Every structure is written in structure tokens, then in C-alpha cells.
Amino acid sequence: MRVLGRLHSYAWDSGPVCVGLAAFIFALSGLSVKLLKGHVPEFEIVVCRSFLSFIACAIASYRNDVKPFFGHKQNVHLLLGRALSGSIAMAVYYFSIGLLALADAVTLFFLNPAITALVAWPVLKNNRATRRY
């Protein structure tokens, strides 16, 4: 049990390990969607993934005593908009995996941060970060 505790602490305290682990899990997710193509509809995969994500977040929120669980009333419309856009993005990603080569679909999906940064300049009046972390 002590070894698992140290491994858990190492994984969460190391940024590169977290990023690598997340990328690996995300790659397995894309591969599983590609392998399930033709056997399970993409929309069903999105619903199942969303349900499992909700359960995991509910457990984590309960364990960390997050109150209120669904957010403050003044932010509900923002949270619902974020949930809807995230669900649409995941559905489009999974549909693209079914239509394109896996490498092409993943590459297009990961252009999202660059597009977000470009849109943030004129819309949010954000400046480019000049400092490196």
C-alpha cells in the first residue's frame, strides 16, 4: 500500500508525468473508438463516456467536499454552455475518428488550443504571454 501511495504522489506532483499519463489515456480512448467503429454507434460511445465522466467527477467532488455540486446559480448558464460545447466537441471528435485516419483526427482535435489562443486575441482582448513557464 505504501508503494501505491508513493506512486500516486509522484504522478500527481509531476507535471510531465500527468501530461504523459493523460495523453496515453486519451490515445487509448481514440483507439478504442476506432476499434468499435461499425459495432457501436459513435453517439452511444459519447453518451457512455459522458456518463462515466460525470460519475468520476461526482465521486471526486464528494471526496473533496465541493459545495454546491452544480455550481452557483449565477453561473448555471455558463456551466451548461460549457457542458453543451464540450459534449458537441467530443461527439464531433468521435465522429471524425470514424471518418478519418486516427492520426488525422487526433491532429485536428489537438489544434484546439492554438485556435483558442488565436480567437482569444480579438474576442477577449488577451495579449500573448511573453513569459515562459
Automatic annotation (TrEMBL):
Q: Does the keyword Phosphoprotein apply?
A: no
* The keyword Oxidoreductase is annotated on this UniProt entry: no
Ordered alphabetically, the record's keywords are:
Membrane, Transmembrane, Transmembrane helix
What organism is the protein native to? Dunaliella salina
Where are the membrane-spanning stretches? Answer: 12-31, 83-102, 108-124
Task: Spell out the subcellular localization from the entry.
Answer: Membrane
Looking at the record, the residues that make up the EamA domain are 17-126
Membrane topology label: Multi-pass membrane protein
Entry protein name:
EamA domain-containing protein
Identify its protein family. Belongs to the drug/metabolite transporter (DMT) superfamily. Plant drug/metabolite exporter (P-DME) (TC 2.A.7.4) family.
